[in-house]
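anyone seen this seq b4? input:
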Amino acid sequence: MSVVPASTKRLELLLFGGTLLLYIAVTLVANRPDLIWDEGRYLAFARNLTQGFYADPKNADIINGPGYPLLLAVLLMVKAPLIGLRMVNALFMALAAWFSFRAVKPYAGPRWALGVALITALHPNLARTAPYLMTEALAVCCIAGFAWSFSAALRPEKANWLMMIGAAVVFASLTMTRVFFGNVIMASVPFLVLSALLVKRERGRILRALTVMLVSFGLCVPWLAYTKDKTGENLCWSTVGGELLYWMTSTHEGENGHWFSVEDAQTKPELVAHHRELYLPYYELPVKEREERFKQLAAEQLKANPAGVFKNWICNWGRLIIGHPRSFERMDVTAIVLLVINGPIVLALLWASVVALRRWREVPPEIWVIGLLSFIYIGGSSVAPGLPRYTVVLWPWIGLGIATMLSKKPEMTPA
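predicted toks r here
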């Protein structure tokens, strides 16, 4: 059994404690009495849970998974104040930084691990959302926790069943927090099955990865049973896909696939002419019918102007990285800051991908699998209106891949 050096233990303790104190302070400074962004929605679902239901029993609009609302519901039941609800994200950010360090260290050493962990702790997109009732802190905690537990489960010659179970539970928690990862599970399984058949020398590790994904899916079955009961749809992770596709395929002058709310469609001058008379009546339909109508409209818009939709898709990559371009908006300071920060990360990722392809036999199978999951998530995210906060949560996986391929430390060291 490996012994972690005392200096590394102190570094991990400082990293965890420093990040925790930082976000406690940030939350105290940023605290406000009103709700902003998506806080009201998560809090509403949490309050529903304290009353014995999740979505409206008569017309269930299942916008997001129950992971974060479940946590908030527990805190509401013990009468935690609003700032107390918000403060929990400080713990998630501290865990995310620590898990990132633990994931990267065996592959690239403590310096690279510290670099990845500090970006996890200090990235402005995470620092901006963590003081509020938003899911980014919990999601990045799950992403980092999965990177650590999953790599530790696959790295040894013999299966580490405790880490495999931990990785499955963490990925299921991630999926219940960000339900799009349910699609990542389903898309990854065929690839893993095919890999197990073709790559004989790593079949054992690939089968471990497949087991983790299947157990994760199994843990999500109660959620899928719930959505099936409420919507009649099989494998329904949420009920917003049609609406997102509607905006992604809208190609009217000045639009580039950016999402708008129902209120925007009724009041924003640039949108009124093309969307007001259609959007609100559709939006007020029963959820199942609304989804079908929006998906039908999206298909019609794609057929009518495929080149325009392709342009929207290209624009969406910019939104996922720096939050720009957005329909009818000029580039702001935030986009420039993100360009300065995320631009080098994208370049490093591209270079690490080239190195991985050149030295593909040397890449540990667990890194290939995490790369596959990342590729599926980012690729899938690109076909719906995106924002930087959707992709920043993936940083611990991306950072692990970059550090593994670009560090000058090819040998593996104990976790």
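Confidence is low (pLDDT under 50) at residues 410-415. Residues 6-33+43-240+322-406 form one domain. kinda curious what u guys think
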